[in-house]
Amino acid sequence: MLFRPGALVAATMLFGLPASAEEIVRISGWGGSEVAIVNGLLTNVLAEKLAEEGIRVKYEPVDGDYSQFIINGLSAGTAPDLFYVDTFWARSVFSAGQAAPVTNDVSGFAANLLTAFTYDGKLYSTPKDFNTLAIHFNKDIFDDAGVGYPSDDDTWTTLQEKLVAVNKSLPEVDGLCVVPEYARFGAFALSTGWSPFDARGKTVLDKRFRRAFDFYTGLVKSGAAVMAADAGHSWTGGCLASERAAVAIEGAWILSALRDSAPNMNLGTVRMPKDPESSKRGNIVFSVGWTVNAASKVSKAAAKVAELLTTEEAQQWVLEQGLALPSRTSLNDNPWLRGGQPEQIASRVVLEGLSDDHVMPYFFGDVGGSWMQPINAALNSVILGEEDANTALLSAQSAFDRMLAK
Amino acid sequence: MMASMPAAEVSPSRRRLPAGALRRRQLAASAWVYLAFLAVATIMAGTFVLAFIASLKVDPLERPFRIYFDQLNPAAWVAAARLGREGAGDALWGGLAPGANVHFSVTYAAPADARIVEPRAEIPRRRPGSGIAAALMRHYAADYASIALRSSSSATKQARDKRGIRQGWQARTFVYEITYRSDRHNGPWIERTPVNLTAPTSQTLIDSPISPSRSERRGRLLSWDNITPGALGLIFNNYRRVISETADLQTGKSLIGSWLGNSLAIATGRLVLTLVVASLAGYALARLKFRGSRLLFAAALFSMTIPAQVTFASNYLIFRDLSLLNTPWSVIVVFVASANVLLMKQFFEGFPREIEEAAIVDGANRFQVFCKIVLPNAKPALLVNAILAFQGAWNDFFWPLVLITSPPEALTIQVGLLSLRRSFGGVQGDWGLVLAGAFISIVPVVILFVLFQRHIVSTEFAKGTT
């Protein structure tokens, strides 16, 4: 066949015209397991629809400090057109007028995911997915130790007894790796009925908080746990993956980490233990939302991409890949969630965490993530034995009083 | 006057040694000095060598640290080459391709009173959990390959039990055959062939062509990430992964390649700019007498005391307003030239003034003197400046981190390494890949030093700095 440059130019012009009308939407989110989710959606599920809308998506995952990346980018005018915001720092973006309100119908989303994304009565982010905490455990360790598996009926006390028994039977294994962070401890505090903010908007570290605090910080002393850092890990899932600990308190995000570091683990997942006094469960909801950059030149197209990324069809694909949990309530009955595979069970349990007795979003109003600092400092100093609980909690209470004095 | 003392009365420490003993003592002293130097060199180079060894390992953090493992074991290289050839006809890089017929043998041992059972073998569908590999992986060996036990044989081996007592253990060797399924003969080439073997903990694996990647389920399950690696695929698996698993999702191009290219462009740009500015400014400060020259010199000196972080915000805003953020130009021009200027000034001040005056008498103007007389003679100082500027730009972390944040392919190698650390090193614990990336990042600077080491270590360096 002869090469005909003229024909090629004509064809290029003909087919090239619609391409030139394309709107390019830059989107970004964090790296890690998120890359597979977003890229999979864009290439496997939404490619045709995006083409129909005349939108080309340029996806830029960020492996660095994501919040810093976005906040710097928004200040400098280099932020992408569509990006994630996490519930606990979303307010700083909304209050600075850097996000465009979401105008889509969001009636299909779980109501308790929308709280943190609402500011001044307007919704500024479309919930992408969510997570709650659950107890993930290594069945082989419990089998070898001759200790019964953790169960949905466990209270703090019975779970602690099981963890101590595991450590006694298998000294090389610890029950749990604890981290001195509200992001894990908070679920225990909430189960007592304590709330981060009382009716006057103050944080009061009352007797209920103290009970949960004493339990959590006492896990190490009782032999049920070890500090994660002392075990050479930065999170509870790292200890579980390396078979150093029998259980981990994490969300469904642990599944992607286990695929890399312990792909064959005989994994079990149950709900968070109940407070033995109140017989209630507490949990924290972690969520991320798609947010349109208010300064974007293609904000309409960006909003359309956000809408497509969170449609029921898209979320069903994400769910069935075992990648994340949907934010749309209609997918709660999806058949995939009733399966018996460890990943399906873990996802189901994490989904059920949304309807625990005392569930709060990982969100601290206008104060933002710094609200957690006094509690984290108190947990750390008591677990390390640097201070007693009385002193540490007095300091924390003073810090909250100062922080919320306005 | 002191009377001479008989030799017998001289204290032993002051007595002259026989020549042979003196020679031995000198040799011993030399040997100790030599060993001391060797020890220092080993400690200095040893950390580097250990880090490189660790970068080859599946788990660089393993404790205790071993220096004898498959990636450094010639027997494993030979086995990996055979497995790669049987898997895809490629003894170097291996894989699994249509027509593959791989034989993989494992030997388990157990005390005489225990029974050795056949391990349950499977080719798992191993999905990467994170990073770009999770998004890019399309083909899984589990969809195309089958595994079956081909033969087994028994033997007795001498082994030590837990108490260290030698006794005869029974051993059984199982040979598995992994084949590319005949009904999928048009299937793709697949990079990795993972295998899982599950057996009771009462029996121990004592031999396999290549070692398992990890032991899971408290010793019940042995897991190989890839049994058809090929020799180079086995040794440089982390290096292969850091190139293939850091790819741009849109173009498929390796990100680490882009990062190296960006660093090279930025370092070269900064080198050129440094040479131009430093030589012109250094010459002006050394030779030209103008109002405020002393003040300018003092300002240049003072500017060396200001950390980059102090000027970060103002520089950032200027680059934002010039629309230079996220471009290499911002990092090229945001350099502190004071040190380089002073280096050149010092050199020019030492340059004989008479030569310049002779040129001026011959009719040359100041710029001609600079270009045609001074600069050609300033090669040592220029070379030192160039090397320092290149190395400084290559290793710079702060400014690229602040000024270039997106897209991912626009980063420099040093910031890219941070991205690798966050993506693979944190909760994933995949430090082998991060270390491999770090070693790739030093290659250009090592090449630079190898090429110019003669100039760096010779007296030329002294000429430039004094």
TrEMBL record, chain A:
| UniProt source species | Rhizobium meliloti
InterPro entries assigned to the protein according to its UniProt record, in alphabetical order: SBP
Q: Which domain of life is it from?
A: Bacteria
Q: Which GO terms describe its biological process?
A: maltodextrin transmembrane transport; maltose transport
Q: Can you name this protein?
A: Extracellular solute-binding protein
Q: Which residues form the signal peptide?
A: 1-21
Spell out the GO cellular component terms annotated for this protein, sorted alphabetically and separated by semicolons. Answer: ATP-binding cassette (ABC) transporter complex, substrate-binding subunit-containing
| Any one Gene Ontology molecular-function term assigned to this protein's record | maltose binding
Q: Is Transport included in the keywords of this UniProt record?
A: yes
Q: Family per UniProt?
A: Belongs to the bacterial solute-binding protein 1 family.
Q: Per UniProt, which keywords does this protein have? A: Periplasm, Signal, Transport
